[in-house]
Amino acid sequence: MSILSKDFLWGGAIAANQSEGAYNKDGKGLSLVDLLPAGRERTEPLFNPAKGLNKNFTFYPSHESIDFYHHYEEDIKLFAEMGFKALRLSISWPRIFPNGDESEPNEKGLAFYDKVFKTLEYYNIEPIVTINHFDTPYYLAKNYGGWYNRKTVDFFVNYATVLFKRFSKYVKYWITHNEINMILHIPYIGGGLIIKDTDNKNQIMYQAAHHQLIASSLVTKIAKEINTSNQIGCMLAAGEVYPNTPHPDDVMAALSKNREQYIFIDIQARGEYPNYSKRMFEDLGVNIHKEVGDDEILKQYPVDYISFSYYSSRLESGDESINSNKSAGNAFASLKNPHLEASNWGWQIDPVGLRITMNQIYDRYQKPLFIVENGLGEIDEVDRDGNIHDSYRIKYLSEHINQMIEAVKDGVQLIGYTSWGCIDIVSAGSGEMKKRYGFIYVDRDNEGNGTLKRIRKDSFYWYKKVIQTNGDSLTY
Ligand code: P53
């Protein structure tokens, strides 16, 4: 008998900017990601987002992506065939407010999500909606300085209010910002921040994060006023940081690195900046400018649940010369853990780390958790028989779900599990199509060629059985 409750939310997750395409259809404005080419050029300083669309790059992967905008019915039907109880998706902010600073929304953008939510309702799939998944309108980044500018809080509040009013009849679970801590690692994508070398980078990132935190609390208040059943979650790019050795300096360094992630959730779950932030900000030369009432807003409107992504654990040393050997396989650089294997993109695979991370987060906050991203980005080949035999993905997911169940047995309260990129989509980190996470293959390559045909992978049938048995059958 499954330990998971019968209404456990099994499903998958995608984001608008990585799946929809139709980047300039029906009045949509440019999103931050629409300016990013594929591959190496994607990351600064090779790519300068301040300059706008660059004619030297002929291919921008988000512009068409997998065209979920026109394939959503077919795709949701496939999710239903797998037995999905939930789909995490995001709403494209520039589809609703093309520049971000308008007062009235773009009706055609809203109409698209009406259709998506109606289709989900038809199949009894619960939508989990991220309001801001790396998708601030580019106009706000360019003309206002993105989230560094306090005005962006007002624009976001207006945008979120429109969504709550229009979609609360379909949506109960909302997530305000995707991976809020990523603003420290990919500030352009996370916060629309275009930072110059001469800027005080930490000051800009933490001030922008403060604005995101305030915005999150403000919209929590509004969501509850509009519909008391609305549930608002924060979202952390999680993954426990381990000490490199038992040396106390390494343990202290790991603790500090963990605080770099938990600081945001400490604020969102407990409603105040933690004590350690005072010294941390002093050391970083950061001075957060707060407006009157900010502390009260944070305190009064904490989140209802804590959602997070988990791909890997990390390793930290107290010795900076050792830390300089970190590999940047991920936006989170990490030392190599000799006990773990890594994916072709250098992401270290650690299923037990998921159990550890879940227990740490739950011990810290005692609020329900929701795993809204987990999965393996790998190269898939279509076999001569036309199928995709992704046994490596099945192994990864099976081991992680097994450890997730162990954490539930440990006493962690868990709402659901939505595996990342349940249909192949464009990678956020590298813009590649080649890095696939899906149960469903999409015929499209790194250069944008392909028929966009959808094919069920072996993992599709495996996951269907996992859901059917509520996690009892994980064999592969
Ligand atoms: P990709 C790393 C780098 C960029 C985004 O990442 C990330 C991470 C992981 O911590 O965060 C999430 O596509 C993000 C998704 C993203 C997914 O990880 O680079 O919320 O948008 O696609 C996987 O392999």
Q: What can you tell me about this protein's structure?
A:
By secondary structure, the protein is an alpha/beta fold. It has 15 helices and 14 strands. It has helices at residues 16-19, 68-82, 93-96, 107-122, 138-144, 151-167, 187-191, 201-226, 248-270, 276-284, 294-300, 320-323, 351-365, 391-410, 458-468; strands spanning 9-13, 86-90, 126-132, 173-177, 231-238, 241-243, 305-310, 314-316, 341-342, 348-349, 369-373, 414-420, 440-442, 454-456. The strands form four sheets. Strands 1-2-3-4-5-7-11-12 form an eight-stranded parallel barrel, surrounded by four helices. The protein has a two-stranded parallel ribbon with strand order 6-8. A two-stranded antiparallel sheet has the order 9-10. Helix 2 (68-82) runs parallel beside helix 4. The chain is globular, with a radius of gyration of 21 Å. The model has no long low-confidence stretch (mean pLDDT 95). 2-(hydroxymethyl)phenyl 6-O-phosphono-beta-D-glucopyranoside is lined by residues 15, 18, 134, 178-179, 237, 309, 311, 330-331, 373, 377, 420, 427-430, 435.
